[in-house]
Amino acid sequence: xxxxxxxxxxxxxxxxxxxxxxxxxxxxxxxxxxxxxxxxxxxxxxxxxxxxxxxxxxxxxxxxxxxxxxxxxxxxxxxxxxxxxxxxxxxxxxxxxxxxxxxxxxxxxxxxxxxxxxxxxxxxxxxxxxxxxxxxxxxxxxxxxxxxxxxxxxxxxxxxxxxxxxxxxxxxxxxxxxxxxxxxxxxxxxxxxxxxxxxxxxxxxxxxxxxxxxxxxxxxxxxxxxxxxxxxxxxxxxxxxxxxxxxxxxxxxxxxxxxxxxxxxxxxxxxxxxxxxxxxxxxxxxxxxxxxxxxxxxxxxxxxxxxxxxxxxxxxxxxxxxxxxxxxxxxxxxxxxxxxxxxxxxxxxxxxxxxxxxxxxxxxxxxxxxxxxxxxxxxxxxxxxxxxxxxxxxxxxxx
Length: 399
Fold this sequence. Notes:
Layout: H1 10-14, E1 26-33, E2 41-48, E3 51-58, E4 63-70, E5 74-80, H2 90-95, E6 98-103, E7 107-111, E8 120-122, H3 125-156, H4 160-187, H5 192-202, H6 211-217, H7 221-224, H8 227-241, E9 252-254, E10 260-262, E11 270-276, H9 283-297, E12 302-309, H10 313-323, E13 328-332, E14 336-337, E15 342-343, H11 346-350, E16 360-364, E17 370-372, H12 381-390
């Protein structure tokens, strides 16, 4: 659990981004010699640009051969007798006979006296670097292992004090894991393995400028032009368009009665633009803090425009009524893919939103200029808004 806590679920996010064309494909061969006792189905899965590829075959006395084409090195998974159509426990997941490795256009070989999990992998240059960072992380994982069952026990017993005390011991190790990855990234600017770690760390979250752009430029031109590199470049370009001082992009979304509402229709008023879903954690605190800011600043001087995702019209009405929400509220039903954790609609893409990056609060002045993005939504949000309104930002388009 702790071993993957700080990047839980991010691999799925990294490799489910839409877009990108397939071209300049190059051939690969993956062959394996495992224990002759290993039998059943072996499955290979990976993403070739935006396309998920799954190939499988029956093991023949522990041997297998896969052939295909990829444009560039990618992380792939080999798994023996994978479990389909049911959730697995944490123990089952950790004990499965599976391995993650770098697939690239070459002749890659697996050799083991048991299964793929313990196989020696040769023929992949990026695999060598992946194993190097994995070995460094494994030493830290061994320090985390004794705490895992105890933490799960505290969680099941709802022992908040015990869990909090345990995390004081765990957090320094998790911090060291992040630092280890950061050093690896800096030392390997031309490595797909290093770039993938960078993307896991930055790609799914709000792009903070100029930090992320500086880190991105550290990598070679080849990596910046890769599939994930192009996606990151697009995210950075969008973040620049949404920087404070720029004109906020206009939009039209339906309100609770199906009437279109535009951001430009509120020009002449300061607007707190909020993105949210009812299923997000700590919703009561979020609602309370927004209401408090609205009341403290005065509803005549600050409009709250809240954009909700996921709910259809009927559910949206029920949520507003049940939660007694009085803000100007609109909704975008198809804007988010909550399974793949990405924004898919034009509105979500324009504002660089995903299920991971909401809730968010933005302040837009009476002229439609962005004053702040990603305002912290806590009990002091009203004070932050007052400060921003007292020190207006110039429109960058007119500089």
